[in-house]
Specification:
alpha/beta; Molybdenum Cofactor Biosythetic Enzyme, Chain A; Alpha-Beta Plaits; 2 domains; 6-stranded mixed sheet
Length: 245
């Protein structure tokens, strides 16, 4: 499973709008993959450490955005080390990248941006050469989109090319009018029982009129069979439906 952590008080306070979520969804979809979960976290070391302790214990592939700088409100590097139970140290590859970027202007504060949990691997930064880092299946990126997004795609294409799928899952749905979800639950359960490899979704709305987007996601051949099953079931219940645009 792929997960995302988006870190920063500025997102939770509304000072800035998150752009990472739609980007990671698009990047994964382009490779036939999907995002299983996403969390927004504050700049709170205790919370970040608790979450990373949990996610590091799982097999998920996680992209973390934000908090890897060297200012007092950046805690992600320290929290990752604490959650992993390892020390922090200046990574030699990061040191070379930062020195190459700043030359004679390099100093201890700039080198601090290359201090990562022991056992990390660097993620090259094509924007300014100040790297991010990977620890296990967790990948820690800057909060700046112009840096983070090409770094994320580099990780996907370098470390996870074997997971890319040409036969990406598809989703197909119909729009049911005049029905409440409770009136379709038996049909939904029957669909799940018949096609357990698929994911069923039901998205109701009430404006401008009551309607339900009802569909399935998964293998294209099975999806085609399941959507026909749903269409027949909805018609048998006496409700009208149209294909989703």
């Amino acid at each position: 499973m792929f997960g995302a952590l988006i870190i920063g008080d500025e997102i939770l306070s509304g000072k800035r709008q998150d752009k990472h979520f739609p980007r990671i969804v698009a990047a994964l979809k382009a490779r036939g993959l999907g995002l299983s979960w996403s969390m927004n976290l504050p700049d709170d070391p205790e919370i970040i450490t608790q979450v990373l302790t949990s996610t590091l214990a799982r097999a998920d592939i996680v992209f973390s955005f934000g908090g890897i700088g060297a200012t007092p409100d950046d805690h992600t590097r320290q929290c990752a080390a604490k959650a992993a139970g390892v020390a922090l140290q200046l990574h030699p590859d990061a040191k070379r990248e930062i020195e190459a970027r700043f030359g004679a202007e390099v100093n201890a504060k700039r080198l601090e941006m290359g201090v990562f949990p022991v056992g990390s691997r660097i993620i090259p930064n094509p924007y300014n050469r100040v790297p991010g880092f990977s620890y296990g299946r967790h990948h820690f990126l800057p909060g700046f989109p112009e840096m983070a997004w090409p770094m994320m795609e580099w990780v996907l294409d370098t470390e996870y090319a074997h997971l890319h799928r040409a036969d990406a899952p598809v989703d197909v749905a119909i729009v049911v009018t005049g029905a409440g979800e409770s009136q379709l639950i038996d049909l939904m359960n029957a669909c799940i029982a018949r096609y357990p490899a698929l994911k069923l979704f039901s998205l109701p709305s009430v404006s401008p009129s009551r309607r339900i987007e009802l569909g399935v996601t998964g293998d294209a051949k099975l999806v085609a069979q399941a959507i026909e099953f749903i269409k027949l079931g909805v018609s048998a219940l006496g409700f009208a439906w149209t294909p989703r645009d």
